[in-house]
């Protein structure tokens, strides 16, 4: 497999953010199950709740902060670039969810990165069948990282 290129951006000063190595490992896990996809470059940006809320409002029509937003890159006609897209992750929301769900922060971050990367690759969970397929794939991918089922109550 070609090298994964991640542009890691931290728009917040937070010592508990995942490292580039962790991000590369988690994204690589997704790519290993999609070896034919040659879009190996993405941006992962960590933001505060205000930026998350503004992006969620402006692009998704939901006026609240959220854990992860995905923005797939669409190649212009006649141009082929290896860009997958951008993930925007709100640390405050992810940390709060991890605490509420009594999960290690690292595990929840891994789940958000896997989940968001799958969105960039075209997976969705709007329809029930799509949701079941995506959640099952997330379970399988996270299991390879020794992370328990994130959907288990």
UniProtKB/TrEMBL annotation:
Keyword Hydrolase: yes
PROSITE patterns named among the record's database cross-references: UPF0054 (PS01306)
SUPFAM superfamilies, per database record: Metalloproteases ('zincins'), catalytic domain
Top-rank lineage group of the source organism: Bacteria
Ligand binding (Zn(2+)): 115, 119, 125
Compartment(s): Cytoplasm
Chain segments annotated as coiled-coil in the UniProt record: 120-147
Co-factor binding comment: Binds 1 zinc ion.
Leader sequence residues: none
Gene Ontology biological process terms in this record: rRNA processing
Keywords: Coiled coil, Cytoplasm, Endonuclease, Hydrolase, Metal-binding, Nuclease, Ribosome biogenesis, rRNA processing, Zinc
Cofactor: Zn(2+)
EC number from the UniProt entry: 3.1.-.-
Presence of the UniProt keyword Cell division in the record: no
Stated family: Belongs to the endoribonuclease YbeY family.
NCBIfam families with a match to the protein in the record: rRNA maturation RNase YbeY
Function: Single strand-specific metallo-endoribonuclease involved in late-stage 70S ribosome quality control and in maturation of the 3' terminus of the 16S rRNA.
Name by which UniProt lists this protein: Endoribonuclease YbeY
Organism field: Halomonas hydrothermalis
């Amino acid at each position: 497999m070609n090298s994964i290129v991640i542009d890691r951006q931290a728009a917040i000063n937070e010592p508990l953010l995942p490292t580039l190595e962790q991000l590369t490992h988690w994204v690589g896990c997704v790519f290993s199950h999609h070896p034919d996809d040659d879009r190996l470059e993405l941006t992962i940006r960590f933001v505060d709740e205000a930026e998350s809320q503004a992006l969620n409002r402006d692009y998704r029509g939901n006026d609240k902060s959220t854990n992860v937003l995905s923005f797939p890159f669409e190649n212009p006609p006649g141009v082929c670039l290896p860009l997958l897209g951008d993930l925007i992750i709100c640390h405050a929301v992810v940390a709060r969810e991890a605490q509420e769900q009594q999960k290690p922060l690292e595990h929840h971050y891994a789940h958000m990165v896997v989940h968001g990367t799958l969105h960039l690759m075209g997976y969705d969970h709007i329809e029930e069948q799509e949701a079941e397929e995506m959640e099952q794939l997330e379970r399988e991918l996270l299991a390879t990282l020794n992370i328990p089922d994130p959907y288990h109550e």
